[in-house]
Amino acid sequence: MAFGTQDDTDEVMNEINMTPFVDVMLVLLIIFIITVPVMQHAVSIELPRATNQPESLKPETVRLSVDASGAYFWNADPVSDDALQARLAGAAAQVPQPELHIRGDKAVRYERVARAMAAAQRAGVHKIGFVTEPE
Question: Looking at the domain assignment, is residue 53 inside a domain?
């Protein structure tokens, strides 16, 4: 004989009750929302002042042209091979260094243009560009 009545429906509960877990997480979220602005530490520093002024010296542009016969022209003035090296060395010593724009005739041998580039490199010219005309 059994004491009291016992149902066959009494089973062990296999699921976790999520309601207390959600409540605890919401409370923690509220605590973090409140405490995070308080935890931010701001260090007061005085940064150095700097002025930003544009560079007033613009480098000049040197136009070195090579005509169809292979002659060099420094800004439209004819120049010999020896004088070209001296002028390139003088241009490389300037501060700021000028840009060298090389214009080669399409009928000139590439060797003459390559010699001008090599002379500019030996002289120490860093900014070399080629000028072409659109078709």
Answer: no
Residue 123 domain flag: yes
Contact 117, 72 (CB under 8 A): no
| Rounded-to-integer distance, Cα 123 and Cα 4, Å | 112
Q: Where are the beta strands (DSSP E) in 28-117?
A: 61-66, 72-74, 77-79, 99-104
Query: Residue type for 9, please?
Result: T
Mean pLDDT by 10 residues, the chain (135 residues): 57 80 93 80 77 75 94 95 94 92 92 94 93 85
Burial class (CB in 10 A: 0-12, 13-18, 19+), 125: buried
Question: Could you tell me the CATH number of the domain that includes residue 119?
Answer: 3.30.420.270
Strands across the sheet containing 99-104: 77-79, 72-74, 61-66, 99-104, 128-130
How many whole angstroms separate alpha carbon 66 and alpha carbon 113? 7
